[in-house]
Amino acid sequence: MTIAKHAIRIAAAAVASLVAGGASAQSQADAELQKQLANPIADIVTLPFQLNTNFNTGPFQKPQYTLNIQPVYPIKMEGGWSLINRAIVPLLSNPAVLPGQDRKYGLGDITYEGFFAPPTGDSGVIWGFGPALVMRTATDDRLGAGKWSLGPAVVVLKQTDAWTVGALATQVWSFAGDESMPSVNAFSVQPIVSYRLDARQSIGYIGTVTADWQQNRASQRWTVPLGVSYSLLVRPEGFVPMNFVVGAGYNVIRPDNASDWFVRFQVNFVLPK
C-alpha cells in the first residue's frame, strides 16, 4: 500500500511538472510574440484592422471614421536581410466641409512601405529603410490628395525584456496627379513606445505626429497627438493568434478644423507564414 501511494505521488508530481513546464513554454512564446507585434518590421505575417474615430472634425465639428487595413508580409533575402512589405488601405467616412454637403464614404489613398532590414546586430538595435509610396486611389476628391507621392521611410527601435522604444518616419513629395490639387510635401513620425505588463498584456503610446510643409503658418502645419493604448494577446483554440488594441488620445497641437479627441480599436490577426 505504501509503495502504491509513493508511486501515485511521483506520478502526480511528474504531471504537475509537465503542466508547469508547458505553461512556462507557452508564456515565453506569448511574450516573444508580443515583442514581435510591437516591432513593425518583425518577421511575422499579420493582418491588422484598425478603426479610428476622430471627434469634432471639420467646420461642423462632426466625427470622421477611418478603417485602416494594414497587411504586413516579410520576405527573406540574401545575407540575412529581409524586405518587410507593409500596406495601409484606408476606408473613410468623412464629414461635410461645406453647407449642403453630405458625408462622403469610400476608399482613400493607399500607402505602400517597403523596409529593407538587416539581421539584428550585437547592439540589439533593429532598423530598416526603404520607399514610401502614396497612390492616387481615392474614390472621391474629398477622400484623398489627388496625387501620387513618393519618399523615404525609416524605422529604428530597441527592445528589452519589457520595453520597445523607437520610431517610424516617412517623408513624401508628390510627383504626379491632378494638377488642380495642391502639391504634397508631408512628413510623419510614429513614436513606438510599448511596455509589456505580462506575457499577453501591454500598454503603449498611440498616435502619429504629422507635418504638412505646404502650410505657411506653423499653427496649421503640425498635428501632435498624445494617446495611450492597452493591448491583449489571445490564442483562440483552432484559430490564429489575435491581438486586440484599444486606446484614446488628444491632439495637443492641431490645425484649424482638425479633430481634437480620437479613439482606436484594432484587431490584429497573426497568420502562418
Helix and strand layout, with pairings?
Layout: H1 2-37, E1 45-57, E2 62-69, E3 72-76, E4 82-94, E5 104-107, E6 111-117, E7 125-134, E8 147-159, E9 163-177, E10 185-196, E11 201-205, E12 209-212, E13 222-234, E14 242-253, E15 261-271
Antiparallel strand pairs: 1-2, 1-15, 2-4, 3-4, 4-5, 4-6, 6-7, 7-8, 8-9, 9-10, 10-11, 10-12, 11-13, 12-13, 13-14, 14-15
Explain this structure.
This protein is 13% helix and 53% strand. With 273 residues, the protein is mostly beta strands. It has one domain (2-271): Porin. The protein has a 15-stranded antiparallel sheet that branches. The longest helix is centred in the N-terminal third of the chain and has 36 residues, at 2-37. It is globular.
How many angstroms separate the termini?
54 Å
Structural class by sheet pairing and helices: mainly beta
Total helix count?
A: 1
Kindly report the average pLDDT value: 92
Tell me the Rg in angstroms: 23 Å
Number of domains: 1
What is the assigned CATH homologous superfamily?
monomeric porin ompg
